[in-house]
Amino acid sequence: MQLSENAQKVLERRYLARDMDGRLMEDIPGMFRRVADHVAKGDLAFDPQADVQALSDRFYAMMTNLEFMPNSPTLMNAGRPLGQLSACFVLPVEDSMEAIFDAVKNAALIHKSGGGTGFSFSRLRPEGASVKSTGGVASGPVSFMKVFNAATEAVKQGGTRRGANMGILRVDHPDILSFIRCKQDTTQITNFNLSVGITEDFMHAVEQGEDYALIDPSTQKETGRLNAREVFDLIVDMAWNNGEPGIIFLDRLNADNPVPQLGEIESTNPCGEQPLLPYESCNLGSINLNAILKETDGKYALDLDKLGQVVDLAVHFLDNVIEVNEYPLPEIKRMTRESRKIGLGVMGFADLLFKLKIPYNSDKAIETAEIIMKFIDDRSKQASRALAKVRGPFPAFAQSALAKGEPIRNATTTTIAPTGTISIICGASSGVEPLFALAFVRNVMDNDALPEVNPYFQQVAEQGGFHTPEIMRAIARRGSARGVDGVPQDVQEVFVTAHDISPEYHIRMQAAFQKYVDNAVSKTVNFAHDATREDVREVYTLAYALG
After folding, report:
1. Does 269 qualify as catalytic in the annotation?
2. Which of 139, 151, 283, 334 gives a 20 to 30 Å CA spacing to 29?
3. Count of CB atoms situated within 10 Å of the CB of 367
């Protein structure tokens, strides 16, 4: 196993099993064997005579060759007492005191098990609305979000992952202005990412400069009107200030909802890449594209045969995870098994572009993204249909939007996650992001400072004769090779980093991947310190225009 020192540190700090006194009970190969053995047992549900050991060996090889990695809770909890393997959950928040505090309790149980939660607060009546049972007035979504935030702070996910939440409010909720402004004070609501749930009607009103109606969710009556363009400007202004709120296109999520008979999509997981129905969970895993390259005489090419084999095995792995998972709530078990959603994504995309000598901010890179993701999406559907022949389609298939096609095992198969720590384990660039810097110091848990230089860049610099201490220091200071004396021009063009790339190319890359992803794509748009509000507005409107 080609693990970097940083990968080993992260695995030891966060993933390896420990006893009650905090002593390590397993080594790194032991962790991967534990996960492979446990997930392979999923086959027994369909074939009591299945060769579980042979399958475990294949899963083990795929992970230890760093070709595929499941989401963190699977690595942490498979084959251990907790047994909760999903990363993403969405919980409903109904408009009653009992339901609100049930959701707080359920979120705490999920955080304890290493999962992240998403909520829509759009069903809660607005601040100041009357409450019949007490004769009092409602305190509104933002005040209840503070309760969820405090509960998350108290749990802190058992110390291995911090609790993370997504909070969404529809743009036509009467409290939308206070929601958009609620993180103006950055000490408030610190355990939430926030997104405004945007409708197509609202975006049309923005384009036309028209007013739109605010609707009280408890009475369905109009309570007022706002100018859509002014609200959009406020979202842009807040996002320009501190990066929040994001925007999420609710109508688009539901236009692509494969199981509308089970409910409406109203929220996503904390990083936004996994839209889910209330009580659904999803299991994610990512293919390391950097490990799927073949080299001939120093020239690299994508090995499509190998990629296809990894996709097939990864879909099998993720479907088995649904089988062997210990769900934190019976409702989550029922909903998850009804649609059997999985989310296969990628990491190492920036590494792949470096080796193929393609600048990230080029039309060739956009085209490469589409080719790779279309292949993965198509192949994952084939693999899921093959499983359906043996195991049956997902239970909600007959009434689903997919019912006209060939039976399929999983309602969704593709998602692109940020792959935070699993990309460190694989020594790969994260998700579909460009490299943030060619050389930098990474801070992990309790401020461990881990220095990193991109190994492939180091290799190119050594072979090209420009690996000198002065040049490397200059690159570490800037994070980028752009404009560094002594670095050849063609190398500067290929080894672009996040801040060398215009916001437009960040969004175009997201759109390219989204074209062939069932769920969504986690993507950061990096802005220079002197970016204007207009630059932020352009990114949001371009995202809308590119679907």
Report:
1. yes
2. 283
3. 12
| More reliable by pLDDT, 114 or 340 | 340
Q: Among 66, 32, 64, 36, which residue's Cα sits nearest to residue 52?
A: 36
* C-alpha closest to that of 70 among 4, 114, 105: 114
Q: What distance in Å separates the CA atoms of residue 277 and residue 20, rounded to the nearest whole number?
A: 37
DSSP 3-state of 342: strand
Check pLDDT > 70 for residue 243: yes
Q: Is 273 a catalytic residue?
A: yes
3-state secondary structure 265-307: CCEECCCCCCEECCCCEEEEEEEEHHHHEEEECCEEEECHHHH
Asked whether the beta carbons of 375 and 302 are under 8 A apart, the reply is: no
Q: Is 127 a catalytic residue?
A: no
Which residues have CB under 8 Å from 545's CB, separation 6+?
Answer: none
In the set 88, 182, 271, 282, the catalytic residue is 271
Select which of 77, 269, 283, 410 is catalytic: 269
What does the CA dihedral 336, 329, 26, 62 come to, rounded to 10 degrees?
A: 0
Q: Is the pLDDT of residue 163 over 60?
A: yes
Specify the 3-state DSSP secondary structure of 208. Answer: helix
CB atoms within 10 A of CB 253: 19
Q: How many residues does the chain have?
A: 547
pTM as predicted: 0.95
At 485 the pLDDT is 96
The pLDDT, as a whole number, for residue 453 is 81
**Per the residue annotation, which of 67, 244, 266, 273 is the catalytic one?**
273
3-state helix, strand, coil in the chain (%, to 5): 45, 15, 35
How far is it, in rounded angstroms, from Cα 284 to Cα 416?
A: 9
The confidence score (pLDDT) of residue 244 equals: 93
Angle, helix 363-391 to helix 503-514, in steps of 10 degrees: 30
Q: 500: which DSSP letter?
A: G
Whether the link from the prior residue into 126 is cis, omega within 30° of 0, is no
Q: With CA atoms as reference, report the closest residue to 337 among 350, 349, 325.
A: 325
Helix (H) or strand (E) holding 193, with range, is strand 192-198
Which is it for strands 299-302 and 267-268: parallel, antiparallel or unpaired? unpaired
pLDDT band at 472 (very low <50, low <70, confident <90, very high): confident
Identify the pLDDT of residue 451.
64
Give the three-class secondary structure for 134.
coil
What letter does residue 497 receive in the DSSP assignment?
B
Q: What is the largest CA-CA distance in the chain?
A: 79
Counting residues of the chain whose pLDDT is more than 70, the rounded percentage is: 97
Tokens describing residue 499: 């801040």
Flag whether pLDDT at 134 surpasses 90.
Answer: no
3-state DSSP assignment of residue 454: coil
Q: Is the pLDDT confidence value at 522 over 80?
A: yes
Beta strands at 281-288 and 342-347: parallel, antiparallel or unpaired: parallel
Position with higher pLDDT, 442 vs 400? 400
